[in-house]
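Student: I would love a firmer grasp of how sequence relates to backbone shape in proteins. I am handing you a single protein, as its sequence and its fold in token form. I am told such tokens are a discrete way to write the fold. I hope you can help me see how the letters and the tokens relate. Take your time, and here it is.
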Amino acid sequence: MIGYADDAIVVAFTLRSVVRRAGIDAVRAHWPGTDDGFATLTRLAGLDGAGGTTGRK
């Protein structure tokens, strides 16, 4: 169980760092998954209020 928890924490911190540097729109442009998956990921990482859009253009 701890293995999954620390993986999730590392992913969240990494994603937040990338978003701060590149912006949420740049991350979204490179997201290979679904719109729903990206929305879930940003909510779980605490990025749902990061500004920008999460939808594809």
